[in-house]
């Protein structure tokens, strides 16, 4: 009852028209062809880094040079390479309808180009077959950060237009070998994070940046390289999509899209400056990739502020890029405030963030607390772990629907970070997932063309920012046990059961008892918190992943906990 009231209020606030009540989320609330799944990426779960002919990716090199926060690497990770059968069994237990994973390019084509590694083929064939034998759809990403080191060494990877040909040849092998059984292809995972992380701030491999930006990199040019890499990525994506449509579509009948990372952005104040700044931030973070894909060119404001530092599309490139994504994968975790920062346009030199001329901010009081004692805030936020702003899911989907004429979308990542620990009671993660899926449902009911939802992540994994310190998994992995034993958390039990059957499984209700919030009970405090202004705190996820695309102020605040190069 109270929950109903709360949602009614929320609906008033966000302006939805149909008065849905927040009863248990049920599978039937979503269209039958909608898929629910969970995800991973090759370097983060496979392990077997030196086995069966795999060569290093830029992530191996980077991690082995000690640049991950906890100095760890993905040599072994979850060892999914050897344990995929067990993992697929766990997916069946969890009731997953789909599994999102990525192919390791240097495992399939060692050195990035040329001969195909039969052991690599065998592994992905086995994984795909195992999934299909168990009724689980494979949703495959071709590139999730792990570029073959050989191509980085040869021509600097994404900085060179040569990557287009090699990436297309790699994709060709994937379509040819796996496309009879895989019908959902994503070319790249969050290129908007990759380009800034790798070439502006330099804390993702290959770790390039230039002073005064980023972390004392030895090489790079933060003012131009993110734009150059993004341009090559768009051309590479378009080339792969064209290949698929020309050579495979008629027979394989799949779809091919790309993924982006997006916050929901809210003006910090109602001033016209902050409102415009918010649009500008969306143009930079989202439009940078989506505008060329939908309209054939970068947003005007991006071209204007980046000037000669951003490459232009030739007419034929523009035609190739436009319309080359059948769908967009969306990685969405949280919401931010945007403040106008016109002074940054006077900076010289200037990087992407200066060109954007905004500051991303949490609520002001949190920022000042963070200034006093960065590590304390980091620790506190990591352990509390509840930074959900679920209405942001509906917000960002509404933005995409309006701006890009309602493109098909898969939620590829959404989930909650916590310290990696042996507790299996991740009630706050259950609440996070429940609230975000509720918000997603509102968006679907309001007409957003969303076709699937994947939680991040299925297993606790090697996380790209801090290694094994934090985790998002529905399953706890005991990285200290010799066989890397997996244990289902409460969220694993929850994830499909209420969606399928409208309630937690009996065993969970019995074991967790009254600590489980009932699906029909309100949580008035939480609702209130959401209603009053989309307040938020500095999120652990933001710490772990998106530090890279925030203001230099925040960069300085947290400077001391970052790895120095
Ligand atoms: C629902 O969709 C309509 C049409 O796009 C839009 O005007 C309205 O703001 C949307 N409601 C919410 C809550 O996003
Ligand atoms: C970065 O590239 C720009 C444009 O080519 C150039 O003007 C600038 O000097 C370069 N900066 C560094 C640090 O190399
Ligand atoms: C331990 O992990 C659980 C489950 O992921 C999480 O909910 C909890 O907050 C974590 N505890 C600490 C102290 O970090
Ligand atoms: C970069 O190097 C300078 C000078 O050695 C040092 O003061 C600063 O803390 C370093 N910055 C980072 C982010 O590592």
TrEMBL record:
**GO MF:** beta-glucosidase activity
Task: Cite the entry's keywords alphabetically.
Answer: Glycoprotein, Hydrolase, Signal
BP term (GO), one: carbohydrate metabolic process
A Pfam family this chain is assigned to:
Glyco_hydro_1
Which residues does UniProt assign to the signal peptide? 1-22
The record's listing under SUPFAM superfamilies reads: (Trans)glycosidases
Return the similarity comment: Belongs to the glycosyl hydrolase 1 family.
The protein's name is: Uncharacterized protein
Q: Which organism is it from?
A: Protea cynaroides
Q: What is the lineage of its organism?
A: Eukaryota, Viridiplantae, Streptophyta, Embryophyta, Tracheophyta
């Amino acid at each position: 009852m109270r929950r109903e009231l709360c949602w009614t209020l929320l609906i008033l606030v966000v302006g939805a028209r149909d008065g849905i009540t927040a009863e248990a989320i049920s599978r039937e609330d979503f269209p039958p062809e909608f898929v629910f799944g969970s995800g991973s990426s090759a370097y983060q779960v496979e392990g077997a880094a030196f086995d069966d002919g795999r060569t290093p990716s830029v992530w191996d090199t980077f991690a082995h040079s000690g640049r991950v926060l906890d100095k760890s690497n993905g040599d072994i990770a979850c060892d999914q390479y050897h344990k995929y059968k067990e993992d697929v069994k766990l997916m069946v237990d969890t009731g997953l309808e789909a599994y999102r994973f990525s192919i390791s390019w240097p495992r399939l084509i060692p050195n990035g180009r040329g001969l195909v590694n039969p052991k690599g083929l065998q592994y992905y064939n086995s994984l795909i077959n195992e999934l299909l034998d168990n009724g689980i759809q494979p949703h495959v990403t071709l590139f999730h950060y792990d570029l073959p080191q050989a191509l980085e060494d040869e021509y600097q990877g994404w900085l060179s237009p040569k990557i287009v040909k090699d990436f297309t040849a790699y994709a060709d092998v994937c379509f040819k070998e796996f496309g009879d059984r895989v019908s959902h292809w994503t070319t790249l995972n969050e290129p908007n994070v990759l380009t800034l992380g790798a070439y502006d701030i330099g804390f993702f491999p290959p770790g390039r940046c230039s002073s005064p930006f980023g972390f004392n990199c030895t090489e790079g040019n933060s003012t131009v390289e993110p734009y150059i890499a993004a341009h090559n990525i768009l051309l590479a994506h378009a080339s792969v999509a064209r290949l698929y449509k020309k050579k495979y579509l008629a027979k394989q009948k799949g779809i091919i899209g790309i993924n982006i990372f997006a916050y929901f952005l809210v003006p910090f104040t109602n001033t016209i400056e902050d409102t415009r700044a918010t649009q500008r931030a969306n143009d930079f973070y989202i439009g940078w990739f989506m505008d060329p894909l939908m309209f054939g060119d970068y947003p005007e404001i991006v071209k204007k502020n980046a000037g000669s530092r951003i490459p232009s599309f030739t007419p034929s490139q523009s035609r190739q890029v436009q319309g080359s994504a059948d769908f967009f994968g969306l990685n969405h975790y949280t919401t931010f405030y945007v403040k106008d920062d016109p002074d940054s346009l006077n900076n010289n030199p200037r990087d992407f963030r200066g060109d954007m001329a905004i500051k991303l901010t949490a609520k002001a009081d949190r920022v000042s607390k963070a200034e006093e004692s960065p590590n304390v805030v980091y620790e506190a936020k990591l352990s509390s772990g509840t930074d959900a702003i679920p209405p942001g899911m509906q917000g960002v989907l509404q933005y995409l629907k309006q701006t890009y004429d309602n493109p098909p979308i898969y939620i590829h990542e959404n989930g909650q970070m916590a310290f990696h620990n042996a507790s299996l009671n991740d009630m706050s993660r259950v609440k996070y997932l429940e609230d975000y899926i509720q918000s997603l449902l509102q968006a679907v009911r309001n007409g957003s063309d969303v076709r699937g939802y994947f939680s991040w992540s299925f297993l606790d994994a090697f996380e790209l920012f801090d290694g094994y310190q934090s985790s998002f998994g529905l399953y706890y992995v005991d990285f200290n046990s010799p066989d890397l034993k997996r244990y289902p958390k409460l969220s694993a039990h929850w994830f499909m059961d209420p969606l399928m059957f409208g309630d937690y499984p009996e065993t969970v209700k019995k074991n967790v008892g009254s600590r489980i919030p009932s699906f029909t009970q309100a949580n008035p405090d939480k609702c209130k918190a959401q209603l009053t202004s989309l307040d938020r705190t500095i999120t652990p996820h933001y710490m772990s992943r998106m530090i890279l695309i925030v203001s230099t102020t925040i960069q300085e605040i947290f400077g001391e906990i970052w790895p120095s190069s």
